[in-house]
Design a protein that fits this description.
This protein is mainly alpha-helical and 413 residues long. It is 80% helix and 0% strand. The protein has 16 helices and no strands. α1 (9-39) packs antiparallel against α6, α1 packs across α9 and α2 (44-71) packs parallel to α4.
């Protein structure tokens, strides 16, 4: 067996559960977009608003998820979260087959799910060090990351085919069952968790105390504050892209199969950079890599939607996926380089959450505009603004040199 970590039963249970869960997520992503388009009468505003509500839920939960998993039982959090997601998606399936869904109900379901997703992600991230040996962490993270990349390529394309051939209800049922399988997998995991010396009431107080402490740490660092403002602006201007892609697929006649193929190609582009990331010259400052990624995304977006050709759209999607990875991976490295390990969870979750603050507005606005002006114009403007932000990144003094190194300290310094 090539991956020795798979001999670890706990890690194997975890991997099997997450494999089913990620496949279900890929099918669900395509299905929920097509459902929204159908019940809204192909209104872009409905899709954009749904994405906006999704972003709001992730923002609310994002500020609390890191501190919660730091102070409460991680295994119980993951089990409860997955079981709740099973119930919610199964309810979506039931309401759908009974014809009882409308845009408001779907949006509320998306909002509830968005509250749970960051909590699961934070718990999952901190679980792996408890179930594998320290010298197996690199292999364990690498295997699950590669597996997810492969699933993200295959599942959306499969979802598009299933929606076209059997309808979106099948995808909802599969996704609901995948959460149940994931829940069972986590229940089978056995590990000794570190018991917190605090009672539940004190834990809750510490969770809320972490919020102003994390905010204080970011604002006290010129580099982190600059980075935070920069990513907020970038995410605001690029917020409409996610809801506009299914709208484009529908308006241009690509269908659910085309939308699934586009989403798979995004993941393929991102995975391509993952394989090539080791070839990036180390002399290039990490911050500049973010600007290079934005440059690739900006160039791709300016041409997106100009030609109603699926092959050309897929090619541009590949480039955008590559650019997204070229932006996101250095961003993670920047945080790891500049934030002390005892604050990394809270500070990183705050910055990623802050990044999405403006997205509800921009997503809703993008959906509204798609009903009134050509999609090619909207994408061109987004691409132009992305290019401007790339050149701004090249000029930022904070990005021209390597960031200050992290040192262990307290929030009270």
């Amino acid at each position: 067996m090539r991956y020795k970590v798979l001999r670890n039963k706990n890690y194997l249970y975890y991997t099997i559960g997450q494999t089913f869960s990620k496949v279900g997520d890929g099918l669900y992503t395509v299905a929920i977009m097509w459902l929204l388009l159908k019940i809204s009468g192909n209104k872009g505003l409905a899709v954009g608003s749904a994405f906006g509500v999704l972003a709001i839920g992730e923002i609310i939960s994002g500020f609390l998820s890191g501190p919660i998993v730091d102070h409460f039982n991680k295994k119980k959090i993951l089990i409860i979260t997955d079981f709740l997601r099973f119930l919610i998606v199964f309810a979506l399936y039931y309401l759908s087959i009974r014809g009882l869904l409308n845009v408001f109900k779907v949006t509320m379901i998306l909002f509830i799910l968005s509250l749970l997703s960051p909590l699961f992600s934070a718990g999952e991230f901190t679980l792996i060090p408890h179930i594998v040996e320290k010298d197996e962490l690199l292999e364990a993270n690498g295997f699950i990351s590669g597996l997810r990349g492969l699933i993200n390529i295959l599942a959306p394309a499969l979802g598009g085919i299933i929606v076209a051939g059997f309808g979106y209800n099948v995808c909802f049922l599969i996704d609901a069952l995948s959460f149940l399988i994931s829940c069972i997998g986590i229940m089978l995991i056995k590990f000794e968790s570190i018991n917190s010396p605090y009672r539940n009431g004190e834990k809750i107080r510490l969770v809320f105390k972490s919020i102003p402490d994390g905010f204080k740490f970011i604002t006290a660092s010129h580099f982190l504050l600059t980075l935070c403002i920069y990513v907020i602006f970038i995410n605001f201007i690029q917020g409409p892209v996610d809801p506009l892609i299914p709208i484009l697929s529908n308006k241009y006649g690509f269908g659910s199969e085309g939308y699934g193929l586009i989403m798979s190609t995004f993941s393929l582009g991102a995975l391509s950079f993952n394989f090539l990331s080791g070839l990036v010259p180390k002399r290039i400052p990490t911050g500049k890599l973010i600007a290079y990624g934005l440059l690739i995304m900006g160039l791709s977006l300016t041409f997106y939607g100009i030609f109603r050709n699926l092959f050309f759209t897929v090619f541009l999607s590949f480039l955008m996926g590559f650019g997204i990875a070229l932006t996101n991976i250095p961003l993670s490295a920047l945080l790891q380089q500049t934030v002390p390990s005892n604050k990394l969870g809270v500070v990183s979750s705050f910055i990623y959450t802050f990044a999405g603050v403006g997205q509800p507005i921009s997503m809703s606005l993008g959906g509204l505009l798609s009903d009134k002006i050509p999609l090619s114009i909207i994408f061109f403007v987004i691409g132009l603004l992305t290019l401007i932000s790339a050149f701004v990144g090249f000029g930022l003094s904070a990005f021209k040199e390597e960031p200050p190194k992290a040192r262990e300290s307290t929030f009270l310094e």
